[in-house]
From TrEMBL:
Lineage: Bacteria, Pseudomonadati, Pseudomonadota, Gammaproteobacteria, Oceanospirillales
PANTHER family referenced in this protein's UniProt entry, alphabetically: BENZIL REDUCTASE, CHAIN DEHYDROGENASE, PUTATIVE (AFU_ORTHOLOGUE AFUA_4G08710)-RELATED
Protein name: 3-phenylpropionate-dihydrodiol/cinnamic acid-dihydrodiol dehydrogenase
Keywords from the UniProt entry: Oxidoreductase
Family of this protein: Belongs to the short-chain dehydrogenases/reductases (SDR) family.
The species this protein was found in: Marinobacterium maritimum
Presence of the UniProt keyword Oxidoreductase in the record: yes
Amino acid sequence: MTVLDSKVALVSGGADGIGRAVVERYLAEGARVAVFDINADKLESLARDFPEGLITVQGDVTRYEDNERAVAETVAAFGKLDIFVGNAALFDYFVPLRKIAPESLAENFDRLFHVNVMGYLNGVRAAQEALKASGGSVILTVSNSGFYPGGGGILYVTSKHAVVGMIKQLAYEMAPDVRVNGVSPGATDTEMKSVEGISGRAQPLNHIPGFHENAANAVPLKRMASPADHAALYVVLGSSEQSPMTTGCVIHSDGGWVAR
């Protein structure tokens, strides 16, 4: 048997990057998977690549109604929901507070926090009853920016610290029926995009000159992570057999920042 045989998962932000790596690993481990993402083209590509055991739902994580629809379509297709993975996020291109114009601060805050924080709350709230019925699990993608400064700008780092607190509080609130945990990746070779308009220099993370070399040299393991490098941790946390007593925890997958 594979680890996630008979499990049903819903992955937000699952059409690309770390989310897609989790989707692919979940399918390989026997799960049936619903992928919820705003990018219709990438969802179509994913559906072509995996015609069995997978459905796609196009929508916006900042809209509760879209999250509710994603849960409903997952349960309609597969009969239940065992795992919710919250993964959708925006970056802020390392912009410090002093470089955000006062008149645009609230707008940039709202855009980023509505995806990085409210998006997770919407997903968990929409999935809560289905997860309680199955004795399921929530897994939220954090970042080493949820623990250390410098991995982003003021908005991104603050949002990821908020996600760490969210995991702890939800684990407390949702026990004993649902376990809530997180995975904290470090710098990863993905096209993570920044909030539109926050910086005239903003570009996808892995397009930044020197990004791969600098990220590798910053950690003891001396290499840049691929999205697939993190995926096994989502499997372990999603399996009630492999981690039955783990809740309120975040597993680090960041090349050794804590040792540094």
